Amino acid sequence: MSKKSFSTKTPRRYALTLIGLMIAALLAACGDATVTTTSSSATTAATTSSSNTIGATNGATTATGNTTAAATNPANSQLIIGTLVELANLNPLTTLADHFPEHAPQTLLFDGLTQFLPDSTIGPRLASSWEISKDGKEYTFKLNPKATWWDGQPVTADDVKFTYDSLIDANTGSSNEGAEAVVSTTVIDAQTVKITLSQSDPTFLSRGCSRGIVPQHILKGQDLNKTDFGRKPVGSGPYKLVSWQQGSSYVLEANTNYFLGAPNIGKVIIKILPNQNVLLTQLRSGEINYAPVTPRDLKTIESIPGSKVLENPTPRFYDIAPNHQNFFLQDVKVRQAILFAIDRQGIVDKVLLGHGVVIDSNATPASWAYNSEAPKHPYDPAKAKQLLTEAGFTTGSDGILVKDGKPFKISFLVNTYDTALIQALTVAQQNLKDIGIDLTVSPVDAAVFGAKRKAKDFDGLSRAWNPVYDPDQYAALVKTGNFYGYSNPEADRLAAATLNTTDQAARKKLYADLQVVLDNDVAKLWLYSENELHAFNVNLNGPKTHPVNIFWNLREWQFQK
């Protein structure tokens, strides 16, 4: 079966970068969240009454359905979220919800068997418990007998089987991401289901089992490539879709019969906005009361009475993949020198306005696999020059380093839409010039970027990576045969070993060892990680940090009474 990319209105790379444009970073030495409140007690008092006014500002997005939760709790009538991305459809079979907050609608409408918790452990959702066979190939799930679809039908093992059978069927147009190893799904009884894998996959509980389950009684017999289920879904999640006005908004109402407890907020309106300026304007006016923002928006947010900001650490990071076949970059001393020469903390300070953290490995401090003891490469131009001298470079008459008669000139590719990364590379360009390396920053469109990556036609290629649930999504890219030419048998061994055990402690140790190998080799030129910044009304209680999904506990959010 072939693996398919998710279907959204926006290309996946762009969606990921939009998130990058909406985020800020964690505190320099820890992964704790910072909440900044920009209101005094007087301002809070002044805005308490306006929270209901904000909730009543519907405009063209007024829902037509009943909102029973709002009727019983008017103070928590509705939350209005601003977003810049609209999904092509809400069907979890074809649209993979692994980028947040853009995928808020889908994650609120559908439940998976499991859920990824803030501490990076796996918790129950539709499944109340599960067992894993000794060989790691069989997962047996017990479903929560209280779980129902919005139409009142129970969620059963038949629904789980239908979902995974569809995910692995190449003819359905589904994305099997996270379920690549699934071979079969067997119904044991109405509340028990067994999923068999072709090989042990320790990431299955996080990546594969967080996929939204769909109702067999609605979709059976339909052509999944043509069904309108993606626009008129029936889910089991804490919210129901009332309406979707394309290009304008989604309107959701609380599922008061939700098996884990009815949400506090009766209605959620997700407004689709054209750009960040409009988003900020609507935050200021009170037309929305929650939105993802960028570091450069903070001054504006600070001027909005009754607002606060939550910084949310994530596993996402930016790096440069050096072509290990390049005449200059094939030398580990050269790669080390480049890392020492780039003022990455300066990039964090200037580009991210201090809301970031320098990284030296393929796991960020927000990842459960992060190794804080991995080798570091602090800004040290003198050390960089020393390494380049040891590598056989001399300085030419124009100030550019030369080796074997070749001037040290290289180019790093970057996507044109990735403005923050382009700014970061511009800082690196000057840093490298200071030690005699002539770097050209080459922004190209996504099509050219992808083609050059596939052809390995680059000196360096810079982009963001988002190993959403598990580092294995990135570890695969360090194995021999990767697109940038890095190869180390020990890295291959460790990367493979991480997938051969379901023991999380053992995997953490393997990933820690892998990070040391990669850092010593400077397999990549790691740059920085940045966090999501979320601005919302000071009267909104409940948002908490989460490495993947800021809306993981939206059911518990509520406005102060």
TrEMBL record:
Single GO cellular component term: periplasmic space
Biological processes per GO annotation: peptide transport
Alphabetic keyword roster: Signal, Transport
Matches recorded under Gene3D superfamilies: Dipeptide-binding Protein, Domain 1 (3.90.76.10), Dipeptide-binding Protein, Domain 3 (3.10.105.10), Periplasmic binding protein-like II (3.40.190.10)
UniProt superkingdom: Bacteria
Transmembrane segments: none
SUPFAM superfamilies listed in its UniProt record: Periplasmic binding protein-like II
Signal peptide bounds: 1-28
Stretches the record annotates as Disordered: 40-59
Limits of the Solute-binding protein family domain: 122-474
GO MF, one annotated term: peptide transmembrane transporter activity
Protein family per UniProt: Belongs to the bacterial solute-binding protein 5 family.
Protein name: ABC transporter substrate-binding protein
